[in-house]
Write a structure and sequence with these properties.
By secondary structure, this protein is an all-alpha fold. It has one domain. It is built from 9 helices and no strands.
């Protein structure tokens, strides 16, 4: 592969071929940078939408975005490739952690590009929600956002396909087996995230009660 720019472009049309070439590249790949950028693509718009719908402050939205970006990057670099190796290996795959990490992280090129293309929708949405905006202008902004919203959905669907093809190449098996592996690994990582969240919430709920018990026991 001549340059990383060529790899970015070819990921869109030839994800399997791109992953095959990147796994054999002797140079260092910007996997951490792509993982963080992928987290920004997922959690940037999510945090903004949460702030708009729930009336959160900018600081709360920023904290949500930073936490989501960190968790997403760590999951893409470590947890998701490990689960894909475990599940894919059970389905006959032969990919190692390095190949699967390249497949998972490099497939983020599609959602990252989609996020950049659809950034104007956030701007249009912010303007449309302004108080005192003329209805005609608000309708115009919504009309301008519609094509970008459709493009975002299409890019999101192709991003899912890209992950499947990339993992199929990393494991050297069919796209059908890759689909099963990706779905099962996604379910497992979602359940793990849910369990961690429940433990954290319960821990935060019980800490004050335990502190009160400790104080009363010392009296």
């Amino acid at each position: 592969m001549a340059t990383l720019t060529d790899a970015y472009r070819s990921t869109w049309l030839h994800p399997r071929l791109t992953v095959a070439r990147l796994c054999d590249e002797p140079g260092k790949l910007p996997l951490r940078t792509l993982a963080v950028a992928g987290g920004v693509a997922v959690w940037g718009s999510t945090a903004y939408a949460a702030a708009q719908q729930q009336g959160r402050t900018g600081a709360a939205a920023a904290a949500l975005a930073l936490a989501g970006i960190l968790v997403s990057a760590l999951a893409d670099l470590y947890a998701y490739p490990w689960l894909l190796r475990l599940v894919g290996g059970a389905l006959g795959g032969t990919g190692d952690i390095h190949r699967l990490r390249v497949a998972v992280v490099w497939s983020k090129v599609v959602p990252i590009t989609g996020f950049i293309i659809c950034l104007p929708t956030l701007f249009f949405s912010a303007l449309a929600n302004q108080q005192g905006l003329p209805p005609s202008l608000a309708d115009t902004l919504i009309f301008l956002s519609a094509p970008l919203s459709i493009a975002k959905v299409v890019i999101g669907l192709w991003g899912c396909c890209t992950v499947v093809f990339a993992v199929a190449e990393a494991h050297r098996f069919s796209a059908l087996r890759s689909s099963v592996a990706v779905i099962l690994a996604s379910i497992l990582i979602s359940l793990a995230g849910l369990l961690i969240g429940v433990v954290c919430v319960l821990g935060l709920a019980f800490v004050p009660a335990l502190a009160l018990l400790a104080v009363s026991a010392t009296r």
